[in-house]
Amino acid sequence: MKPQTITIWRDSVAAGDDVFAPHELKIEIEENETIETTLGEILTRHYLAGIQGGKATWIVVGKTALAVIAQQWEKPQYLIEKTLRTKDVLDDKMNGIWILDIGGRRIQMKSSRA
Fold it and tell me: What is the pLDDT along the chain (114 residues), one digit of tens a residue?
């Protein structure tokens, strides 16, 4: 099976962050890749914006709430089994995953076949 490409966008969260807009990131996921692996890839790329004071919090949502990511934590806290395949937790209507910051901004992970 071909890898699936996920494109991730997020809004700017501060004036200095606007310099790098539109904040697009593309990653490929394998057929059996887990949500833990996918979120780990996003975190290693330092894609999510941090805030001064170090307590930015993000909620990952697909078909349901999947995980909470906090700037001060080493790892996400999963609200589902972290070994579920990423492709199985994508929102059917939008074919992706939203990452919401505590201010309500949305980051969309939209998938497409490579």
Answer: 788 877 777 666 666 666 666 677 788 889 899 999 999 998 998 878 777 777 778 888 888 899 999 888 999 999 999 999 998 988 766 656 777 666 555 555 565 554
Domain around 76? 4-113
- What's the number of domains the chain is made of? 1
The 10 Å CB-count burial string (b at 16+, else e) for 76-91 is bebebebeebbbebbb
